[in-house]
Automatic annotation (TrEMBL), chains A, B:
It comes from the Eukaryota. It catalyses: L-valine + 2-oxoglutarate = 3-methyl-2-oxobutanoate + L-glutamate; L-leucine + 2-oxoglutarate = 4-methyl-2-oxopentanoate + L-glutamate; L-isoleucine + 2-oxoglutarate = (S)-3-methyl-2-oxopentanoate + L-glutamate. It is an enzyme of class 2 (transferase). The keyword Transferase applies. CDD domains: BCAT_beta_family. Its EC number is 2.6.1.42. This is Branched-chain-amino-acid aminotransferase. Keywords: Amino-acid biosynthesis, Aminotransferase, Branched-chain amino acid biosynthesis, Pyridoxal phosphate, Transferase. PANTHER family: BRANCHED-CHAIN-AMINO-ACID AMINOTRANSFERASE (PTHR11825:SF44), SUBGROUP IIII AMINOTRANSFERASE (PTHR11825). The modification N6-(pyridoxal phosphate)lysine is found at K289. GO terms for biological process: L-leucine biosynthetic process; L-valine biosynthetic process. GO terms for cellular component: mitochondrion.
Amino acid sequence: MTTKMAIGAKDIFRNQHRLIRFIEQSIRLCSNQSLKAAQQQQQQQQQQHQLNKTQLDGDFNISKSLNSEHWNAVPEPVEHDPDVGQQFYGNQLMVRLASPQQLQPKPDRDEDLIFGKQFTDHMLKIYYHKSLGGWQRPEITPLENLVMHPAAKVLHYAVELFEGMKAYRGVDGKIRIFRPNMNMNRMNLAAKRSGLPTFEGKEFIKCLSRLISIDSEWVPHTQAASLYIRPTLIGIDPTLGVASSDSALLYAILSPVGSYFKSDSSGAVSLLADPSYTRAWPGGVGNRKMGSNYAPTINVQKKADAKGLQQVLWLYGETHDLTEVGTMNIFMFFINDKGEKELITPPLNGLILPGITRDSILALARQWGQFKVTEGTFNMPRVCELLNQGRLLELFGTGTACLVSPINRIHYMNQDLYIPTMEQEKPVHETIRTALTDIQYGKVPHPWAVVIE
Amino acid sequence: MTTKMAIGAKDIFRNQHRLIRFIEQSIRLCSNQSLKAAQQQQQQQQQQHQLNKTQLDGDFNISKSLNSEHWNAVPEPVEHDPDVGQQFYGNQLMVRLASPQQLQPKPDRDEDLIFGKQFTDHMLKIYYHKSLGGWQRPEITPLENLVMHPAAKVLHYAVELFEGMKAYRGVDGKIRIFRPNMNMNRMNLAAKRSGLPTFEGKEFIKCLSRLISIDSEWVPHTQAASLYIRPTLIGIDPTLGVASSDSALLYAILSPVGSYFKSDSSGAVSLLADPSYTRAWPGGVGNRKMGSNYAPTINVQKKADAKGLQQVLWLYGETHDLTEVGTMNIFMFFINDKGEKELITPPLNGLILPGITRDSILALARQWGQFKVTEGTFNMPRVCELLNQGRLLELFGTGTACLVSPINRIHYMNQDLYIPTMEQEKPVHETIRTALTDIQYGKVPHPWAVVIE
């Protein structure tokens, strides 16, 4: 055990050094052009009012055009409540490896992977007990069942939250994760909202990197797949009061995944838009990645399935505003009233999960400056109007699990609306997908992609 | 094992016979006066437009005035989806008793009991596996930890729901539960809404009765306490897709409890009414007892605590309608515009949990016919108006855990509203509490109270 721990610690330090080296390189690469220059460029391009597709395809060397400070802008880290107690640190990590007999066979064909059904050999666990001073030492163990009291808060009051991340095996063989600080900040915001203890995101990422490193052979050797990472935080106090958690478990499991959604042969999904169901509402928690946002969607998804539709389009209010699609953010690409091409996504008004893919797409598209980029509300009547006038070009969902998911049909008020997303010559959603995967799979160096050993 | 099972089955049959005998007796008692006569009486009394308190106190022989068909009116049982598969039955129950060494000491003083911190020696478990045909055999085991895969749906997507019931030790030494069919129907409605399998409520009650019977010495020997029953249903499939559960666990744990809420010395609670938080909304699941309704309330409760307030008053919409208080339904007793005394509670419009205590209070108060009884929306401006005019008499929460919880203060828009609930000479909330506890503790025979061995 001591030997393993020593090896663990050595590896962490080595990884840290590599990480720091990589970030330094990225900063050097990026500092060639300043943020100001990029902003000027963007303003000029927005004045053109015309999408030049050739220019869009060619103008794609993202990592050289903005400095890393801008790219790595993340929300302010959550301030810990004074009574959270001690934090955990990556250099305290204990590792208990699976025995050779416990190791699972890896899937034969990456394309057969079903989302979240198969898991790797190890997991990460960090317990929190207020009565023991706060966060305990992080540990990596073989993947094993959790043991908990039947009164554990997570089983009764949905005291639980999670994140979705991915590790990608790049064209250079290196494994990368994507903007992990964003996940950590979002997770801490959800913890605060749930009466769960907050933690130091960067320390969790150190532990997670070690876990991925140990199970690195599970990261698929193809761009058609990746290793899905599921950090989870649950309240485990064995008491039935509806109250903050004095005991919690922060853990992570890993699952090799192919594509998330079933889609038709074209790769597009069809949606049920039923205004009688609401996902989130003002004064609620629709902008936090808490488990409680998901259970109420399952029965609605079942109704979509029964109609042969693949996902639910979540509408809000009497105006039937589009908010999210399935578990994704939604984007519309259209020709606006000024005749400009415009990419729009609902604003972060409390009803919308602040997606990291969403944020990345907005940042990329603004940098490209090839079309107008807006965070604004749009509703079903507007969608119908644009569709009738031939001005709706593309509609797509975005998220970590699916990346970009084009939409070709909406079933709304007993009508089928056919969306021409798949009929565009050079669709924006494809350009976006390429740009993101180029970063994630290391085809272009970018500070968003963090290499781990 | 076989012997224990045989004993278990024998006990169940004996219990069933006793139950049937009791219900038959109750029906005989109740059929003396018909529903119609009671309704006529109620109409006459409502025409009086005056509350005669003496009459209210004297007219209290509930069990003889309505027939049991009326009293036991419950929502239609949920229809099982065809693919739920086989059901479980009480006569299949397997019992594995705790060893003498495993038995826990019972609490010394019932009044010291903290809600949901201590549990009895045994629990009930019923697994569901679609791949094994549906529901499996019910089993009673020593209280033990649950073992589940870290990807279990309950830990990620809040696929969980529960009920709150109580077993009361009556003045005659018999143990009673209260309107259990209502809990079972509500639980099945929540299961449908959560993509969890439905079950036969009456079979679950048979199993639960046996569990209470085994742990009967845990039912406190006082009217100041009771045995809280927590039936729980969770989705346990070890897969990360947001989807219906093909594996589930229905279980029950028991906890001896005193009073639920902290209150001031007068026994009343103070409330935080902050319109920036919403508990439930149209198109959501606020009317189902799902875990997902609770996690988002914890942080708001913390804000109430920080202000020295005991509970949260949940408002809805721009008009600040009163919906619920903490985890309770809310009732207001006031003098209406016609000068009549009136008891009002928000209607079951989808935002309100259909409380069994709520339903019971409405039925009792309507039978008494001493004041007007209304299910209707009322808002904070109305509360302020009534208060200013001296027409607001009482405000109280109701629920299984607390029964009746009087409210003496609301902190709203930076103002403290003092409610004279505790200043009434013969308060209605006390009359209601007495009426309900008289039934629950067997002081008056009533079909709502079901005796178990």
